[in-house]
Model the fold of this input.
Amino acid sequence: MKVAVVGKGGSGKTTTAAVIARTLARQGIPTLALDCDTNPNLGLSLGVGEERTERLIAVRDAVDEGDEEHAGSTAELLDRFAIDGPDGVRFAVVSAIDNPEPGCP
Done:
């Protein structure tokens, strides 16, 4: 299952995404939460904390600036750029997914 939460600014997308991710993970469903926002706060809403969220943002920025290479596959993205959050949610901050494997990561 793939779920995307979209809407206008201030409509509660981040909070909704965090609640959905943690609820699914608590039910034993493998859950990956990707924060693609230009102002990424999903890590805070998931409960991973400010320091860990800021580190992921720094990695995302390094990729954007060319100081770090993009991941070539979903598995590589998870290995290099994701962390484990509360309730078993796997979490990453990303900006673009170039040439993903068939399907959406």
